[in-house]
Structure formats: structure tokens, C-alpha cells
Amino acid sequence: MSINIQLPDGSERELADGATAYDLAESISPNLAKVVLAAKVNGQIHDFHTPLPDKAEVFLLKSGTEDALAVQRHSGAHILAGAVKRIFGPDVRFGIGPAIADGFYYDLELPRKISDEDLPKIEAEMRKIIAEDVPFTREDLPKSEVIGRMKEMGQNYKLEILEGIGGET
């Protein structure tokens, strides 16, 4: 079985069922697949590894575009959270970590105040995480499972956020 994808120039591409934006980019050019960060699928930004729906309109996002910058900033927030957790340990409590117009941030509760001396350590740890080149993965889980995980980890701020989100996943 196959899917048909519409490209911004109006052309169509036929791909195997379950194909991702990465597969689409690679079918166009292996070099393109190396520089694409994410995709806009039917107007919504998706990661590179989510299966594409049939008849989707897909725009591949490369560095240098506003949408790609938002993806990079979002990724930066996740990398920051990982670095802080490595340095400060399991007692870190996470709130929100959004991309914003001029960067990103993360609301956190730490076992102690961050000092000026901590900032280069956090930056170095972020660079280390980036160098590890571990891909971001997305999991769609039942909301009840996510709530259970957050309770186990003591992530009370994440639980508050989850309470305000509708749906079951």
C-alpha cells in the first residue's frame, strides 16, 4: 500500500504507507534529508519521524526558516532540561519549557539556587548532550500512564499541566 504526498510546488510523491518526512526528504535527495529538521504537515509542525497521512500537504523545514527556528528552540529547551537534570539530579522539578519569540526557557524547581558558576557547567552539559547525537523521539501514551509516570517521578508541576489538558493521550 502507498500514500500520496503533495509538495509545495504542487507536485506529488508516492511513498510507502508509514513513510515519514525523513523518508520523503530522502526520496527527493539524500542531502536534503541531512538538513531537514522537521515538516509542516497540513499546516501543523511535526517531527521528522511521524508517519505521514495519505494526501498530506508537506513542507519540509530546513534551518533558516522561522518554523525551523521554533523547532530548534523547542529542542533547546529539552536539552536544557536534560543538562539541568544531569547536574542537579533527580530532585529537579520541571514546569513548562516553551520556545518563545527570542529563545526558550524552562521553569524549574531545584534543590538549590543556580549560581553564576553553574551556568558554564550547564552549557557544557548541553554541548555534551548535543554531541551524543541521541535522536528525539515522541511517544503518544495514554494520559493515565503519563500521569502515573509523573507521580512516580514526583513531577508535581507536570501533573498540574496535565490536569489542564483534555483528551486521553
TrEMBL record:
> One biological process GO term for this chain?
threonyl-tRNA aminoacylation
The answer to keyword Protein biosynthesis applying to this record is yes
Which molecular function GO terms apply here? nucleotide binding; threonine-tRNA ligase activity
Q: Which InterPro entries match?
A: Beta-grasp_dom_sf, TGS, TGS-like, Thr/Ala-tRNA-synth_IIc_edit
Q: Where is the TGS domain?
A: 1-62
Q: Name one Pfam family in it.
A: TGS
Query: Which PROSITE patterns does the UniProt entry name for this protein?
Result: TGS (PS51880)
Positions of transmembrane segments = none
Keyword tags? Protein biosynthesis
Protein's name according to its UniProt entry: TGS domain-containing protein
Give the source species: marine metagenome
